[in-house]
Specification:
Elements (H helix, E strand, L loop, with lengths): L9 E13 L3 E3 L2 E3 L3 E3 L7 H13 L5 H4 L13 H13 L2 E11 L9 H12 L6 E6 L8 E12 L1
Parallel strand pairs: 5-6
Antiparallel strand pairs: 1-4, 1-7, 2-3, 5-7
Helix pairs in contact: 1-3
The structure holds magnesium ion.
The site of magnesium ion (MG) has 5 residues, from strand 1 and helix 1.
């Protein structure tokens, strides 16, 4: 018999990786970066919002982004990934939960994320109905080990609304 108190927080982990290609729009965290390379994807390729969506869905005990928004569906082609986060947030709220904090690691050699951190944090905070100080973002490089890829990890904590 499961007797876990419902008041305990829920943690969710999201992970995503996309190939980087020259000439692609580079949208990360809902922000368009000035970059010679961008992530390739069926949607707008926003690996950060994809990992965030999966972290939210995982914390809420729901199906993952690939199940809810298949990349075989024409309606998801070039889609704004903020739509996925909004849908996940709707599900979170339907389950009587809210986001308490989020922490992200973006691993890529380019683009350099530093100048865009404030804008990305602000957009993510807006999507999560959260104070910016509870959205954290870290950029790491592979030191040339995997220059043609961006990988993102996101951890989210949900608490009762
Ligand atoms: Mg993805």
């Amino acid at each position: 018999m499961n007797s876990t108190p419902s008041s305990l927080p829920h943690i969710g982990l999201g992970w995503d990786t996309h190939r980087l290609e020259a000439g692609q729009d580079c949208i990360l965290g809902g922000v368009l970066l000035d970059s010679p390379v961008g992530p390739v994807g069926h949607s707008d390729g926003d690996a950060l919002l994809h990992a965030l969506t999966d972290a939210l869905l995982g914390a809420a005990g729901l199906d993952d982004i690939g199940t809810l928004f298949p990349d075989t569906y024409e309606e998801n082609k070039n889609r704004d990934s903020a739509d996925f986060v909004k849908a996940a947030m709707h599900a979170v709220q339907q389950n009587g939960l809210q986001v308490a904090s989020v922490d992200c690691v973006l691993i890529c050699d380019e683009p350099r994320l530093g100048p865009y951190r404030p804008a990305i944090r602000a957009r993510m905070a807006e999507l999560l109905h959260l104070c910016e100080t509870r959205v954290n973002l870290k950029g790491k490089t592979t030191e040339g080990g995997d220059a043609k890829r961006i990988t993102v990890q996101v951890v989210v904590l949900l608490v009762n609304a």
